[in-house]
Amino acid sequence: MSSPQLPENIKEITDQEVFQFNCQPGVKCFTDCCRQLELALTPYDVIRLRRHLNITSREFLEQYALVEWQEGDVFANVYLGMVDDGHVSCPFVSDKGCAVYGGRPGACRTYPLGRAAFQQPDGSHGSFHVLLREDHCHGFAEGDEQTIGRWTQGQGLQAYNQMNDAMIAILHNPEVTKGFIPTPEQRDLFINTLYDIDAFRALGRVENC
Q1: Position with higher pLDDT, 159 vs 174
Q2: Of 81, 171, 192, 202, which sits 20 to 30 A from 60 (CA to CA)?
Q3: Would you call 141 helix, strand, or coil by DSSP?
Q4: What φ, ψ does residue 176 adopt, rounded to 5°?
Q5: How far apart (Å, rounded) are the C-alpha atoms in residues 155 and 149?
Q6: Percentage, residues of the chain above pLDDT 70
Q7: Would you say residue 177 has pLDDT above 90?
Q8: Phi, psi at 108, each rounded to 5°
Q9: CB atoms near residue 83 (< 10 Å)
């Protein structure tokens, strides 16, 4: 599967290509990427964040998430709710950095890379990475040389990628491509079983997570 046409500041990168990047408080743009942000959350993101915050998944969804159904969408989209501070800031960011760094979402860990996963015609999974060079970011003048593998390991992305790839079977189910329209009950089930895992466990359908 070939990647789509990309904007000039986004470049597909191979496993062997090297880039330089680091983000830390001494960088001029520190935390800028945590503002003016629309951040979609995966089920695994919610699990890791609610564990880090020591709250239930329901409490996390009520306090920190926005669940949106848009016309034409088969499944709900879950976003991190931003703070109305004039900068559309992440609720967990401060001048000192990320308050939930150990449980931060996969997209935050992946940046300045982006990763797209897809299902091959034979049912196997594939993926490709891109490198994002945004005008405001000064991190490319910092740190050691990186590769996709080095960055993935250093940011603890292996588990995130594995769990997020498991969603492909649902999101790209053949019935979806045929025009499947879920009922309201099925839409609720999508959220309750994948994002509100504590409530789902309470029903006795999941032993542990």
Answers
A1: 159
A2: 171
A3: helix
A4: -65, -45
A5: 10
A6: 95
A7: no
A8: -70, -40
A9: 13
The residues with which 77 forms a beta bridge, in sequence order, are: 68
CA distances from 161 to 62, 64, 95, 141, 156 (A): 26, 23, 29, 27, 10
Q: What would the mean pLDDT of 15-35 be, rounded to a whole number?
A: 93
The DSSP 8-state label assigned to residue 209 in this structure reads: -
3-state secondary structure of 147: coil
Residue whose pair of structure tokens reads 């790839």 in the numeric block? 165
Dist. CA 187–CA 69, nearest whole Å: 9
Whether a cis peptide bond, with omega within 30° of 0, leads into 112 is yes
d(Cα 124, Cα 169) in Å, to the nearest integer?
A: 10
User: Which residue in this structure is represented by tokens 């009520």?
Assistant: 62
d(C-alpha 169, C-alpha 208), whole Å: 21
pTM of the model: 0.89
Tell me if residue 161 falls in helix, strand or coil. helix
- The secondary structure of the chain in percent helix, strand, coil, rounded to multiples of 5, reads 35, 20, 45
What are the CA-CA distances from residue 135 to residues 70, 128, 140, 151 (Å)? 30, 23, 11, 21
CB atoms within 10 A of CB 37: 17
